[in-house]
Amino acid sequence: MNIHEYQGKEILSSFGVRIQRGIVAHNAKEAVDAAKELTEQTGTGWHVIKAQVHAGGRGKGGGVKLAKNLKEVEEIAGNIIGMNLVTPQTSAEGKKVHQVLVAEDVYYPGDNEPEEYYMSVLLNRATGRNMIMYSTEGGMDIETVAEETPHLIYTEEIDPSVGLMGFQARRVAFNLGLSGTAFKEMTKFVMALYKAFENSDSSLFEINPVLKTSDDKIMAVDAKVTLDDNALYRHKDYAEMRDIREENPVEVEAKKVGLNYVDLDGNVGCMVNGAGLAMATMDLIKQAGGEPANFLDVGGTADAKRVEEALRLILKDDKVKAILINIFGGIVRCDRVAQGIVDACKNMGDAVQVPIIVRLQGTNADIAKEIIDNSGFDFYSATEFQEAADKVQEVLK
Ligand code: GDP
Ligand code: MN
Questions:
Q1: pTM of the model
Q2: pLDDT tens digit string along 108-130?
Q3: What residues act catalytically?
Q4: Residue 226: which residues within 8 A CB-CB, separation 6 or more?
Q5: Which of 73, 283, 296, 379 fits a disulfide with 67 by CB distance 3.0 to 4.6 angstroms?
Q6: Where are the domains of the chain?
Q7: CB-ligand 1 contact for 221 (6 Å cutoff)
């Protein structure tokens, strides 16, 4: 589950990670009040107004702006709230901004310029261990750094039996070129950050930038935090941070009815049972020259109700020009699934406007094929996997 920057910072802060402080605001007036309150605490008077949406690159899209007085806070917050923010990570329509974070300006001019670093914590899938990935090149796309100057990205792997060791945190500070107070501050920052990562059951932290202020404080200026859905049951307070306005509406609905659905860009809707078969189906569609419109695993029960729920979800996507149903009937017999498909289509009537290719394999597959062929609907039946994928291409033409 993804959360907003301000929520991620709350979590970080609760584990002792220093953050750029801020207050969330839902309208221009709240933003001004927030700025006043922050000024009382810190006294700088300058603020950054940051759009809170689940997407990075907000700075580039005009969603992060500096306000030098309260009038500017009001103006900028008023402009950002309600806008459709387009960033390199959103679609062309952008994301609607419902709230902003009014944060203290921490880039105050001093004798030394502030420095920006990159730091993330994530699982290294190759070794099965968590790692801290960091770079001196903060504030820009880490993908660009990886492409152009990969030697400037460092990693520190954590042995799960002993956790992050002090010498590792010091090595991070050393590789970032720090010394004196900033070195000590960075060591503390890294230790606290990893503690936060482990204890919050997160699957990703990305802090870009981590800032060294001109007076040698180390703090998180941005926070992308992804929480592990499977661990949310033990973090009720984090579960409440969910903002479904930020999520794909069809995926939200799928979750409600217990279907595993992921929206994709193609035009072939897929309904499959089992995640492995679903992935193989997507591969075969691609190999035959098509593009899957979704990943959908209907799970163990493929009865009429479930098939209907799944069909309705798939058809919500106007990109879908054909549907491939690929079900393996093991425990659930193919004839029952076939009847389920026919009943679902009867129930849905005119809602089904695209050709449906059905491949049922396993127990009673022959009876199932008869049911499909004699249903009176415009189904295309197939017994072999490849045949089904080729049929999809044929009907699309
Ligand atoms: P992102 O663009 O979505 O990654 O949002 P960030 O939170 O990383 O902010 C984007 C950029 O805004 C940062 O890289 C900074 O350069 C700038 N920024 C963030 N906070 C401040 C601040 O307090 N003062 C100033 N002057 N700039 C800031
Ligand atoms: Mn950032």
A1: 0.85
A2: 765 567 899 999 999 999 999 99
A3: 118, 206
A4: 1, 2, 3, 202, 203, 204
A5: 73
A6: 1-20+107-247, 21-105, 249-396
A7: yes
